[in-house]
Amino acid sequence: MNIEPQLQSIIGRFAFPGELVECEPIKAGHINRTYRLRFALEAGRTRDYVLQRINTFAFKKPAEVMSNVQLVTEHLRNAMLRGGVDPFNRVLTLVPLTDGGTLLLDESGAWRAYDFIVNAVTVDRVDSPEQFREIGRAFGRFQSTLADFPIEKLYDTIPFFHDTVKRMENFENSVAADVKGRAAGVEPEIAAIRARKAEMGRIVAMIADGTLPLRVTHNDTKINNVMLDAQTGEALCVIDLDTVMAGSALYDFGDAIRYGASTAAEDERDLDSVRLDMALFTAYAEGYISETARGLTRAELENLPLGALVMTYENAMRFLTDYLDGDVYFHIENADDNLARCRCQLALLEDMEARRSDMDGVVAELIGKYR
Ligand code: GN1
Ligand code: MG
Questions:
Q1: 5-61+94-118 and 129-370: same fold?
Q2: How far, in Å, from the CA of 58 to the mean position of ligand 1?
Q3: In sequence order, what DSSP letters do the residues of 85-114 get, joined into one string?
Q4: CB within 8 A of 267, min separation 6: which ones?
Q5: Is any atom of ligand 1 closer than 6 Å to the C-beta of 33?
Q6: What does each of the 371 residues of the chain score in pLDDT, given as a tens digit?
Q7: Neighbours of 324 (CB within 10 A)
Q8: What fold is seen in the domain 5-61+94-118?
Q9: Is the N end or the C end of the chain the one with fewer CB atoms within 10 Å?
């Protein structure tokens, strides 16, 4: 097996069993670096793990990330045990270091490892409304299970993560600085962001005036952050807990819709093919609301569609900001990836605006059914 000595020595610091026989990168996410490791045990058996380098440009305080992950996974595990559910393969489980702790800090960065969730798959595009409904139920259960978590114990792993108002300021700073001389080439996109400023600041305003409560939220609810049973399709485990923080339920609902209910990929360049799929919207809303209808307030439930618009807007703005900054945050493969992502999100947002009242109608009906 061909593996960099540096990686080899990092692996040696974790309390893995047996002998390392495979190490392969997993292409997952725009932020962290991820590897799947396989260890040979006795009698031809093997066991898999996930090794991850936390991106410390995005997450400045990895120890605080790990504290959140530890507490939240413990809470989820205990809730399952109380409910008579075997937590094996259903909650992320950290691997300790040989000399204690779960976070390895060295010159090469911040590292941690998890047990691999076995017999499971993730999808980048849903293949049916039923599958998306199941993912909605998983994030809804995640929300309701963490309803009694002591929220003050969580660190803000990325301060102001979904603070759209703050992000608008950062965006304007990047337009003004224009370090790569790219602003002149993206005037329509800049204008599209500016035109929606007032409406898109409404979640932040409703949190500030107490209309919306803070919850323990996942904050990165892309469909590929739920592991599904490879045979039955059942949602097994919510992953990628690095951005679990205090937030609004609208963020979690909204980001899931943004990513999963689009007719196209997040970076689709054929903008005519980018729309909101109402059948997928309805399926996810049903899954999510069926699990949260009694736990969330009426104001939260009624405003869920606003979450979809705001999260789509926020991502458009973040991608454009990063394009203007010279692609320092999101991993890219082509020079204009962040611009393509921005354009796609703006196209999706426009379609969401056209379907706003349809979304509201679906949600109202589901509130009636489940609350
Ligand atoms: C990043 O790493 P990944 O792909 O799960 C980002 C999200 C964005 C998303 C867009 C920590 O998520 O906020 O919505 O890309 N995560 C962070 O695809 O910034
Ligand atoms: Mg992520």
A1: no
A2: 10
A3: ---TTTS--BPPBTTSSS-EEETTEEEEEE
A4: 337, 340, 341, 344
A5: no
A6: 778 888 999 999 999 999 999 999 998 778 889 999 999 999 999 999 999 999 999 999 999 999 999 999 999 999 999 999 999 999 999 999 999 999 999 988 999 999 999 999 999 999 999 999 999 999 999 999 999 999 999 999 999 999 999 999 999 999 999 999 999 999 999 999 999 999 999 999 999 999 999 999 999 999 999 999 999 999 999 999 999 999 999 999 999 999 999 999 999 999 999 999 999 999 999 999 999 999 999 999 999 999 999 999 999 999 999 999 999 999 999 999 999 999 999 999 999 999 999 999 999 999 999 99
A7: 26
A8: Phosphorylase Kinase; domain 1 (3.30.200)
A9: N
- Probe residue for ligand 1, chosen from 57, 164, 222 as the CB with the greatest number of ligand atoms within 8 Å: 222
As beta bridge partners, residue 262 has 276
29 in ligand 1 pocket by Cβ < 6 Å?
yes
Amino acid at 206: M
The answer to whether residues 226 and 280 touch, using CB atoms and an 8 Å cutoff, is no
AA identity, residue 215: R
Assign a CATH topology to domain 129-370.
Aminoglycoside 3'-phosphotransferase; Chain: A, domain 2 (3.90.1200)
Q: Which residues contact 232 (CB under 8 A, 6 or more apart)?
A: none
In angstroms, what is the span from residue 240 Cα to ligand 2's centroid?
5
* 144 half-sphere exposure, CB direction, 13 A CA radius: 17
State the pLDDT at residue 12. Answer: 97
Decide: helix, strand or coil at residue 327.
Answer: coil
Q: Measured between alpha carbons, how far is 351 from 355 in angstroms, rounded to an integer?
A: 6
Which residue CA neighbors atom 7 of ligand 1 most closely? 220
Distance CA 127, CA 307 (A): 23
pTM for the complete prediction? 0.96
Distance 29 CA to ligand 1 centre (A): 7
Write down the domain spans for the chain.
5-61+94-118, 129-370
Which residues sit opposite 238 in a β-bridge? 226
Rounded to an integer, what distance in angstroms lies between the CA atom of residue 110 and that of residue 51?
11
What would the two tokens of residue 150 be? 């002591």
